[in-house]
Amino acid sequence: MRIKKILKHALMLAVFSPFSCLPHAFAATAPTQQVMHVPGSPDFLAVDGASVWVMNRGRVEHWSVSGKLAEVKLGHPCGAMSVAFGSLWVADCKANTLNRIDLKTAQKDVVIQTGIANPRGELNVVSGEGSIWVASDGSGKVARVDPLTNKVIASIPVDSETYYLAFGYGALWGVSATHNTLQKIDPQTNTVVKKTALGRAPGFLAAGEGAVWVQEQGDGTVARVSPETGEVSGRVKVDNSLMYGDIDAGGGKVWLRTTDHQTFVVIDPQTLAIRARVGAQTGSGALRYTPEGIWTTSHDIHVLAWWAKPENIGN
Predict the structure, then answer these.
(1) Which of 49, 146, 224, 235 to pair with 266, CA 20 to 30 A apart?
(2) What are phi and psi for residue 10, nearest 5 degrees?
(3) Residue 25: pLDDT over 70
(4) Angle at the Cα of 58 from the Cα atoms of 44 and 35, rounded to 5 degrees
C-alpha cells in the first residue's frame, strides 16, 4: 500500500503537455545547499562573476560563498537588478530612480531620474543592445538608458502595468500582468512589434535555452514562447499558483523559483518535463543560474543559498 501511495504521489508531480507526453524521472540524489544567513529580507539577485548582489531592506549587499563583501544603502531598493557596464543597476521605489553602483568600489555613482512603474517592487532592470532598460511608468512606458551618458534616450509606449522585462534574441520582452500580454520590443525602432496573449497574471520571465519563458502566475504554469514568431509553443503545469518566485534559463535547463511545495523546479526546455523539484518549501524568493551553481534567496527565513554543480541537478 505504501509503494502505491508513493507511485501515486510521483505521478501527481509529473508534468504533461501537448509537446511532452512522458514524465521525466527525477534525480536520484538530492542536491545540497550551502546556506548563508542574511539578516533582513534578502530577495532579488544579480550575478557578479563568482559573487552575487542581494537586495535587502534599505540596502543592496555583495556576497560570495565565503560571506558578505560589501553593502550599499538605498532608500527602497526594489525589483530584479542587472550587472552590466562595470556597474550594478538597481531601481529605488522610494525615490523613483535608477541607481548605478560601481562594482569595484561598491559606491553609488549615478542617480538617474527614470521613474519606476511599480512602486510595490515587482519589476526588472535589464541590459541589452548597449542599453539599460527599466519599466518607468505604470501607465505603460519603458525607459531606455544609455550607460555612456547615464541619460534616458527613449521612452517606449507599452501596455499599462508592464513591469516585467527580459532581453534576449535581439529583442526586449515585456509582460503586462493586467493585460495578460507578452510584448516583443525591437531595440532598433524602440517599438512593440508583436503581442502574445498569455494566461492569468503573467509575471517574471527569462530569455534563453531557445525560447522566452514566462511565469503564468495565476495559472501555475510556465509558457514557452518562440523568439522568432512570438507565439506560445508549449506550457508546463508546475503548481496551483506561481505567486511570486523567479525564473532563469541556462545550462540546458529552465530554473523556476517557486513558493509552494519546494524551493525550485528544474524544467527540460525541449520536452517541458519537470526534471526535479528541489529543496524544502521556504516561501518566496529569487533565483539566478551560473554554470558553477544556483543562487537562491528565501526572504521569509533570511537565507541566501548556493547549490553547486547545476549540471547534476535534474539529471
Answers:
(1) 49
(2) -65, -40
(3) no
(4) 45
Return the sign of the alpha-carbon dihedral for residues 193, 198, 203, 205: negative
**Res 30: pLDDT:** 85
Residue 1 neighbours by CB under 8 Å, 6+ apart: none
Q: Is the pLDDT of residue 3 over 70?
A: no
Distance set, CA 243 to CA 95, 151, 246, 259 (Å): 26, 34, 9, 7
Residue positions counted in the chain = 315
Mean pLDDT of 213-237: 98
CA angle 172/177/182 to nearest 5° reads 35
What does the alpha-carbon distance between residue 277 and residue 206 come to, in Å, rounded to a whole number? 19
- 182 touches 202 (CB < 8 A): yes
Omega before 244 within 30 of 0, i.e. cis: yes
Q: pLDDT tens for residues 77-112? A: 999 999 999 999 999 999 999 999 999 999 999 999
